[in-house]
Amino acid sequence: MLGFGTVGTGAFRMLHDNKKAIEDKIGLPVEVVRIGVKDLGKDRIAPSDLFTDDLWSIVDDPSIDVVVELIGGTDPACSLVERAIQNGKHVVTANKEMMAKFGSRLVQSAKDGKLDLHYEAAVGGGIPLIQPLKHQLAGNDVLQMMGILNGTTNYILTAMQQEGRGFEEVLKEAQAKGYAEADPTNDVDGFDTMYKISILASIAFGKQVPIESVYREGIRKVTKTDMAYAEILGYRIKLLGIVDAVSSESIRVRVHPTLIKKDHQLAHVNGVFNALWLRGDFVGDLMFSGRGAGSDPTASAVVGDLIDVGRNISANGQGSAIPYGTGMVTEPIDSLVSPFYLRLLVSDRPMVLSVIATAFGENRVSLAAMEMKALDEGLGEIVFLTHPCRESDFQTALKQIGEQDVVDTVANWFRVHDSK
Amino acid sequence: MLGFGTVGTGAFRMLHDNKKAIEDKIGLPVEVVRIGVKDLGKDRIAPSDLFTDDLWSIVDDPSIDVVVELIGGTDPACSLVERAIQNGKHVVTANKEMMAKFGSRLVQSAKDGKLDLHYEAAVGGGIPLIQPLKHQLAGNDVLQMMGILNGTTNYILTAMQQEGRGFEEVLKEAQAKGYAEADPTNDVDGFDTMYKISILASIAFGKQVPIESVYREGIRKVTKTDMAYAEILGYRIKLLGIVDAVSSESIRVRVHPTLIKKDHQLAHVNGVFNALWLRGDFVGDLMFSGRGAGSDPTASAVVGDLIDVGRNISANGQGSAIPYGTGMVTEPIDSLVSPFYLRLLVSDRPMVLSVIATAFGENRVSLAAMEMKALDEGLGEIVFLTHPCRESDFQTALKQIGEQDVVDTVANWFRVHDSK
After folding, report:
1. d(CA B340, CA B347)
2. Do A289 and B284 touch (CB under 8 A)?
3. Which of A101, A157, A241, B169 sits 20 to 30 Å CA-CA off B384?
4. Is residue A36 part of a domain?
């Protein structure tokens, strides 16, 4: 094992607690023989003689069959995994960033070496997502996938929605409870979700999605005011990773806070739970939900992968790495067609609505719903829901609206899931 | 292919429509070379020269690599599958009855021959359930599984609940629409759910569940009156297949209409949708939902399995049949501990409640909630929810209560899901 943090500790404990059942399923004994960590001084649940701070000695140890990479990040994780594969070792990893960036190359190396490279734990914690996409759903053209793939942001959004509290306040509480990190950027700004949805898209469409082609927004802009308006309009706000099949050749991959109708299954995935909703041409609509992070659920995925590696070793198999190519063609966010939510602070004067409606109309944006409220100091608050329109048209309209004298502030806007 | 009904037609169409993507994933061409049917006269979507009414000629044809069994039932399906395996052919099947009764033996034969025997389509239509249990969740001790596994009964119960209609009326409509068969016994009396939950239990616990040890009740006893009381009490009534781990050695498998709290995810699986809820010792709570029947979703599972078989052939692999033993130890329904729902028609007289409460108390059954309503003609209706109690105690109390003069009718009773 490389790394012995939350997931490593959980996997070690699962291999210990369920040892007999696991070995029965594999048909061979399983032994953790070496654990590589940065700091040898910490107190840990595994015997101290298993630990080393020389991670290279593990990937180069000829007596080791399987390397479980749980250190995260790309450096040195990626080099360690590559060397392990060169040395003929199977690899199990939970590393989403590495797989999102270098998955195609790594899986191909494993395949070439007739080795397994499994990474179920990289997306959705304990929820089986990656292997079902590769296997049971493989005959489908995937039409759309939408995922709540980050427990920290879903915990924050759920608390904001249920308790009417603001983002900063809930974030601080989540940090105090250990649900969010001291530097929350990776979660809160959508990087984690971006890696995960990219991996799922790469598998479903058979080519690696260039990570820089993924449109990404985090949840810092979500306010309790918008949460309340969403509720009135019949929606919840969730951070979704979304993949749309645009043509037979191209997809659009995006991560942003999204208004989703309360009657959609994803709207009811709360707290630290994760879910993936998928539409396939034959299978129709599917949803998988469960605990998407944490020691035990992620350990479940790591150990599930290890069992498959063990079965392959036990059967003298060929490995079951399923490679995918590179260069998935993606579409920019500009050409997205989506409904939008817009909240404005405006002067409480005649002609306001006419001015705004004209800017929308000139840009082919038509309106589906509106809420108005008088505020103090001669200001009013207006919330619009548009019918589906082109992102670039909405953004042009937004710019024009922001330049009007009668408009005090473009307070916020979000994309809305089109439930058709 | 053996059989060309709803699922066979769907699979044939999927192999045709998504041919290029499927062949790319396998790395070999896929061709349906022969289709065995009972009646050659029918008009079908496949070229007529593919059809034969001699099913044995297919399983004996040395040019055929994979047999897809879609005729259902045990005879001659089981003999055909056994002969196909003897002849070195991989098998994909959607046959739940065959797998529930003879799965252990068939999978072992396939394993011995280094062949694949896949049966994802047997449970949950297009929802990946069987393979995730065998692979990604394999490291877990499964603590409980609950499934809505039959679309026909879920359609009927959903219509009864949402439209306040009676069982017979909705059944007739479902038959007219083709959602229920002319003889609805297999669905309505719980046989279909029994086969499916038995298969899932056999995989999760590694030994085949003797089919006769599964407690089974269908939905004929569900009335619109009970639906309405369930609603008032905060529940829905669903036909669930339930597996409980009772000890490290034994499980209880049961199929019956169950009151489940409205805030449980399964309460919101409506119409023809299916779902499996699972609790594992490490993975925690998971749910999978989607279309559990019908031509296209089931075809998705069959073709997913075919792709895996194809990859195995393409890689000169060893097959990936995962055998399980026989003789799973099961517990009878008598020792179940569960809350219960009971509806009585009673004389509208003093002492009624005292008499009933005494019968409950003497049998260690304590009450959690009660609803009372005066009916016409001196009768009253009382509905009880009990705290969790032993099934045998509840049944004894029920018998005593039924014998009391003040009790006109024991109108109905159901088991209630204990949400703890």
Report:
1. 22
2. no
3. B169
4. yes
- A250-261 and A215-216: which strand pairing? parallel
Give domain status of residue B329, yes or no. Answer: no
Residues A250 and A301 occupy one common structural domain: no
Distance from CA of A81 to the nearest CA of B (A): 21
Report whether the peptide linkage leading into residue B76 is cis, meaning its omega lies within 30 degrees of zero.
Answer: yes
User: What are the structure tokens assigned to A368, written together?
Assistant: 């589906």
**Residue A127 to chain B, least CA–CA distance (Å):** 7
Q: How many secondary structure helices (H) and strands (E) does chain B include?
A: 14, 18
pLDDT tens for chain B, residues 1 to 420: 999 999 999 999 999 999 999 999 999 999 999 999 999 988 899 999 999 999 999 999 999 999 999 999 999 999 999 999 999 999 999 999 999 999 999 999 999 999 999 999 999 999 999 999 999 999 999 999 999 999 999 999 999 999 999 999 999 999 999 889 999 999 999 999 999 999 999 999 999 999 999 999 999 999 999 999 999 999 999 999 999 999 999 999 999 999 999 999 999 999 999 999 999 999 999 999 999 989 999 999 999 999 999 999 998 888 889 999 999 999 999 999 999 999 999 998 888 999 999 999 999 999 999 999 998 888 999 999 999 999 999 999 999 999 999 999 999 999 999 887
Q: Which of A118, A248, A281, A286 has the highest number of chain B CBs within 10 A, making it the mutation to test binding with B?
A: A286
Nearest Cβ partner for B282 among A25, A282, A299: A299
Residues of B in contact with A297 (CB under 8 A): 282-284
- Hunting for tokens 């069992």 — which residue is that? A307
Give the CB-side neighbour count of residue B164, counting CA atoms within 13 A. 3
Whole-structure pTM value: 0.96
End-to-end distance of chain B based on CA atoms, in angstroms?
A: 46
Nearest chain A alpha carbon to B24 = A206
Cα–Cα distance for residue pair A60/B406, rounded to 1 Å: 81
CA pseudo-torsion sign A111, A117, A123, A129: positive
Instruction: Looking at A76-166, list the stretches that DSSP marks H as alpha helix, in order from N- to C-terminal side.
Output: 77-86, 96-112, 130-134, 151-163
CB A209 within 8 A of CB A254: no
What is the Rg, in whole angstroms, of the alpha carbon atoms belonging to chain B?
24
Tell me which chain A residues have a C-beta less than 8 angstroms from the C-beta of B306.
139
CA–CA min distance A148, chain B (Å): 14
Element housing A343 (H / E) = strand A340-347
* Chains A–B, number of C-beta pairs less than 8 Å apart: 188
Output the domain CATH number for residue A361.
Answer: 3.30.70.260
Domain region containing B394: 334-416
Strand A329-330 relative to strand A337-338: parallel, antiparallel, unpaired?
A: unpaired
Whether residue A228 sits in one domain with residue A279: yes
- Inside any domain, residue B257: yes
Cβ contacts (< 8 Å) between B131 and chain A: which residues? 131-132, 135-136
Total count of domains within chain A? 3
Tell me which chain B residues have a C-beta less than 8 angstroms from the C-beta of A30.
none
In-domain check, residue A247: yes
